[in-house]
Design goal:
The chain has 458 residues and is an alpha/beta fold. It has 19 helices and 13 strands.
Length: 458
């Protein structure tokens, strides 16, 4: 499967300022497959060490001498490790914290060796009291489930994806392509972006089997609880995890999870699940300026689940409901917000640990909430997710009135691509094009403002 990270790995290999690479992300999002394929196609050979399956290999990192480490690994794996020709892949690296620390010394003493580490629970190793992260000597890349664009490639629709990249406000999209994209989006909302499920879908596996695959993945994350929490905390993790699909897109209240459990226990469990990247927080931020994280209010937040397909499975949604009904009328739009959150994360800069934000104003008689805030061109852009092709934008209007320097707002819906009265409407299947479209629209608006002319359409 082609993934966005493929190009990043190629650039990393050829970089003159290359550092050892850490690929971070939840379990089963495709880290091992992508690195293995990269090694197969870009190097003479790959030496893979999986510390979860081969814990005895942790002893090879008894010191931080790169030459000694690769000598020991070469003997035990019976493979040659040649700097410049071999990719050394340290999988599930969180199981051997010394291997993470050793990355610093590979950079300093053996920089010509290409080293990649990957793991699903790296954050837990990094936060251990006795661990020292080799800051400035390791490059991190973040990986998520397959985006809608990656899904299109996987199901043989790469030409359609290329076409999306050419669509703008002037040309618009031909209806025949819009209809096809809506159909594919319905399929993606059901299948999701977990590579194993997408692969099965592309191979025409029956829907019942796909759903069993999804259920198995959901259980996989539950089985992982033992790796990052004591047995006593399992019940709190299960409470938070099992309730997450119903809580997605809503303002998060611990009392809504289980009113019989103290909030502090649920708060800790939620933090652990976010560290494991099973869940993501969407925190409140002011719209006054950027960076958004500088004005974050961590006590006000929503959550997103790992994957929209797994979320649908956990909610027990039947495939016929998704394929036969309006996308946005399912679960009061919570599925659409989940999908948008997932796309925004997948399309973000892979070198940054992207955090999502929303905006709200709570005042008597004039409360308002905007689903997301994103940063483009050095300013906060309000984003609303709406049902079907229509929907009220009162909160968006209030935001634009309160922060007049914001040139426009974005609405994600099934409305055609358009711009009118400060609102840029982007179809759900074109979320990956948001920055390009906002920048293009903003340049037009700035030119008009500088020329002291006004207009309502671009």
């Amino acid at each position: 499967m082609k993934r966005a990270i493929d190009q990043i790995l190629k650039q990393w290999k050829d970089s003159r300022v290359r550092q050892p690479l850490l690929i971070r992300g939840a379990r089963q999002v495709g880290k091992t497959y992508s690195v293995t394929e990269f090694g197969r196609t870009a190097f003479e050979n790959t030496v893979s060490v999986n510390f979860e399956e081969q814990p005895e290999l942790s002893r090879c990192f008894s010191d931080f001498d790169p030459k000694g480490i690769i000598d020991r690994l070469s003997i035990l794996t019976r493979k040659t490790i040649s700097p410049g020709r071999t990719l050394l892949f340290l999988d599930e690296i969180q199981e051997c914290p010394k291997a993470i620390t050793s990355l610093r010394y590979f950079l300093e003493k053996l920089p010509e060796l290409h080293v990649i580490g990957a793991g699903s629970l790296i954050e837990f190793a990094l936060r251990a009291e006795d661990f020292r992260m080799p800051v400035g000597r390791v490059q991190s890349v973040y990986m998520y489930p397959m985006s809608f664009g990656e899904f299109l490639i996987a199901v043989g629709e790469e030409r359609l994806l290329n076409y999306i990249h050419t669509v703008d406000l002037q040309t618009g999209m031909e209806q025949v392509f819009a209809t096809r994209l809506e159909q594919l989006l319905r399929q993606y909302l059901l299948v999701g972006g977990m590579p194993r499920v997408v692969n099965a879908f592309e191979n025409k596996v029956l829907m019942e089997e796909l759903q069993r695959l999804q259920s198995g993945l959901i259980r996989t994350y539950t089985d992982d609880f033992a790796k990052y929490a004591s047995t006593a905390k399992h019940k709190y993790l299960k409470e938070v995890y099992s309730s997450a699909p119903q809580m997605a897109g809503r303002r998060y209240k611990y009392s809504h999870v289980n009113p019989g459990i103290e909030a502090k226990f649920l708060k800790e469990a939620l933090g652990l699940l976010c560290d494991a990247r099973c869940l993501s927080k969407i925190c409140h931020a002011s719209g006054a300026g950027v960076p958004l994280f500088a004005t974050t209010n961590k006590r006000k937040f929503k959550i997103a689940f790992l994957d929209v397909g797994l979320m649908q499975n956990a909610l027990g949604v039947q495939d016929s409901i998704i394929l036969d009904n309006s996308i946005m009328q399912i679960n009061a739009g919570s599925v659409a917000e989940q999908y948008v959150a997932q796309e925004l994360l997948a399309c973000a800069d892979p070198y940054s640990d992207k955090k999502l934000h929303f905006w709200a104003r709570e005042a008597r008689g004039s409360s308002a909430e905007v689903d997301f805030l994103i940063e483009i061109k050095g300013m906060p852009i309000p984003v609303e997710v709406k049902a079907g092709a229509r929907g009220s934008l009162k909160s968006m209007r209030l935001f634009l009135k309160e922060y007049p320097k914001t040139l426009l707002g974005v609405r994600y819906s099934m409305h055609e691509l358009s711009y009118f009265d400060q609102i840029l409407s982007i179809p759900l299947y074109m979320i990956s094009q948001t920055e390009r479209l906002v920048r293009s629209c903003s340049y037009c608006l700035e030119d008009r403002l500088q020329g002291d002319t006004k207009g309502t359409s671009v």
